[in-house]
Amino acid sequence: MLRSRYQDIIAQTIVRIMVPFVQIYALYVLAHGHYSPGGGFQGGVILAASLVLIFLVYGYENALERLKLATAGRLCSLGVLIYAGIGFLCLLLGGNFLDYSRLAPIFQVSLPRARSLGILGIETGVALAVMAAMYSIIMDIVNSDTGNGESHAAGHEIENGETSSDGK
Amino acid sequence: MLELLLSKYNYWLYVILMMIGLYAMLAKRNLVKKLIGMNIFQTAVILFYVSIGVKTGDVTVPILPYGHHHGHEQAINVAHYLNPLPHVLMLTAIVVSIATAGVALAVLILIYRRYRTLEEDEILKINQEAGT
Amino acid sequence: MKTFILALIIIAGSMLIYGTQDMPNWGDPQSPASVHVSPYYIKRSIIDTETPNIVSSVLADYRGYDTMGETTVIFTAAIVCFLLLRRRDEDEGDR
Which whole number is the average pLDDT over C4-13? Predict the structure, then answer.
């Protein structure tokens, strides 16, 4: 497991100052995706990068306190659900799948504006899914047990569930 | 020949990059090096797609400046904007390539747990000794 | 073995380079990729969706179904990593 090589006071202070700005910037990239380079994928990856920064300098357990892996799984599912849900909502309102102009009566706006809002909605879903997926993949890989402990029987160790991962 | 090189050198660079990745995937024994080769290959494909969308001349990124709102179709000159389609496709492809690299690393960790090595020939040897 | 692979790579690479003769020149505005559907996107994006960023409108609106598939791929990758790597018996409660 990745040890706390970067955990010193300078890095921790700098990251504590930086992380809110990184997350605000991620939200800006997400919300301003209509008018500048950006969107759900980029905003989600920047959000995940801020969480990974916390993991690098504050350690695995502190990062889990910020965002539990179970919560990350739920957020990932929620993102895909938002995306598909908006698609099915359009279907229920009489349009094609993901035809956002059918959302216009709900928002009381013109048809192109409704499509713009629909884009914002699914970009939010994409950002949630990408953020949670990247975070959960990285945390899973980093915390995985490579079996480099004392036991040499490879399959045996997994069955017993011995935790040979140190450095917590 | 020289004209061909000057007008199509971008494809040649991507072919070279792609062959580096393919060589790593075929010739290297270590599975992590094979994975790195696969990522180089993916990068070559992504660069190839992005270069397809390039237009020379008076061109900017495919974001309309302020003032095109409220329906002025005639004001938009297509030759002034890059082709947005390859950018869209590669935007998703980059994120998906990261996700697939994560899955590949997870599988490599499982292989290491089982065989205690990541060298391909050693894994094959262990399999031959154990099986049949 | 390595020389065989090297020869294979060189043959494949030279065939690909031979194939680039028929590709459009670099930066050609009239290349086939730039005259098929992309003029429609560039012209209609602001009218149809009120979104100046054409990449966003193509990504999420015109080709939204494709993007939904990509999101599902990322979701599946996260699930696969979770199923392959996470140990089940060590977590006490919700983590």
Answer: 94
In eight-state DSSP terms, residue A97 is T
Measured between beta carbons, the chain A residues lying within 8 angstroms of C68 are: 83-84, 87, 98, 122
Q: Confirm whether C43 is domain-assigned.
A: yes
- How many H-runs (helices) and E-runs (strands) does chain B carry? 4, 0
For A116, the 3-state DSSP assignment is helix
Q: Does the beta carbon of B91 lie under 8 angstroms from any beta carbon of chain A?
A: yes
pTM score, whole prediction: 0.85
Q: What is the mean pLDDT of residues A64-78?
A: 93
Say if residue A109's pLDDT is above 80: yes
Mean pLDDT of B87-98: 91
The closest CB to that of B116, out of A35, A137, A154, belongs to A154
Q: Does A138 touch chain B (CB under 8 A)?
A: yes
- The CATH number of residue B24's host domain is 1.10.287.3510
Q: Are B60 and B84 in contact (CB under 8 A)?
A: no
Does any domain span residue C70? yes
Query: Is C26 a member of any domain?
Result: no
